[in-house]
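Practice problem: predict the structure.
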Amino acid sequence: MDALLTLGELRASGHRQKSVKAELRDNLLARMAAGADRFPGIVGFDDTVLPQVERALLAGHDIVLLGERGQGKTRLIRTLVQLLDEQTPVVAGCEINDHPYAPACVRCRRLVEEMGDETPVAWKPRDERFAEKLATPDVSVGDLIGDVDPIKVAEGRTLGDPETVHYGLVPRTNRGIVAINELPDLAERIQVALLNVLEERDIQVRGYTLRLPLDVLLVASANPEDYTNRGRIITPLKDRFGAEVRTHYPLSLDDELRLISQEAVVGWGADAVAAALPDHLVEVVARFARHVRESPAVDQRSGVSARFAVAAAETVAASAVRRAALTGEDAAVARIADLPSIVPAIQGKVEFESSEEGREGEVLEHLLRRATADTFRARLGAVDLGGLVARFDDGSMVETGELVAAADLLAGVGPVDGLAKILAALGIDDVDSPGLAAAGLEFALEGLYLLRRLSKETVDDRVVYGSR
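Answer:
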């Protein structure tokens, strides 16, 4: 279609004009019929949030997403772009993306009248039909809707000429999707400017007799009003949104694990933290995030972002990379000894109740130990660890820590009956890898300590396990 360069060629091709909401609806229905992924990268919303969003799109409703921080609201909004047509025709050079069949601005109407079927047509890709604005108190009506352009007036146009208007973000995204993040942060007098956009589908700029029929889908995100003290969505504006959708954090451990695995930049890619992160450690981090979210010591109204768990996983992997660099290990593999590095790194991501002031680190350390114990019971609860416990019957001790190489840990423990079963239960197949073997062994030692079957003493950056 992008070979069609004039209005006449477009008409001859049989192209039909669609509103942006009809376009989204048709493409959504096509993906549903084909069984394709409608919202790629969105985890944990399949049975709750996404059906509501789909109903809103099918109904042609503008949407406001309500939820605490880090629930994927912005990510979800951005996936809507994939439901637009791959490209769409616009009058070439138009500031507000007028369709050649129905030009709205003065400039394009004049151009079509003068040139007719020779009117030049350009093709706009879907990625350029999405605009996102973070609402801040300094956002003006001119930023969103438009204002008089003094430069155009200085060029000789009269002040009453509609072509002296400099269009704002909303009209410039005509025939596309406009996203406003953190809508309550927008000053109430600025929110009023959006009332016509949502209901009458037009804009007004200062005292101009200007009526531009807009074709946009407006999607906004906001924190629940009972949490944010920065502002509110004014009642008339809330009334004009067709659908209000509540988001949430992952409801199951499996969803939490999928989210961390998808979002954490860990592995061997060019931009990744170059370390192996065993599955049992990812599970510890996921359980830790869930325990923090449910803790009475944490301010539940602020929530605990999904970025909390992602940052924790990346910090654990980075600790392994640091150990490999300092000890000369061939490959960086994360271990239990890397978990304490999480607490100082992510403490600022959590808002605590005022009664817990001064105990923040202690609370997080307790919840991290609890997450480790829960993972140990789930992964190794049914495995016979008698061979490992017997290793300490003669009073021997094993030293490990953040800067103890995997080979040194394995040498300190020596042969252990049943080690292969321990590693198999943890999903570690490469038993010949010192890093992975040490990771599984150290996890078992920590679990036995948490279940009070071994003792543990921490001195500086060294940890010593022994018999009780």
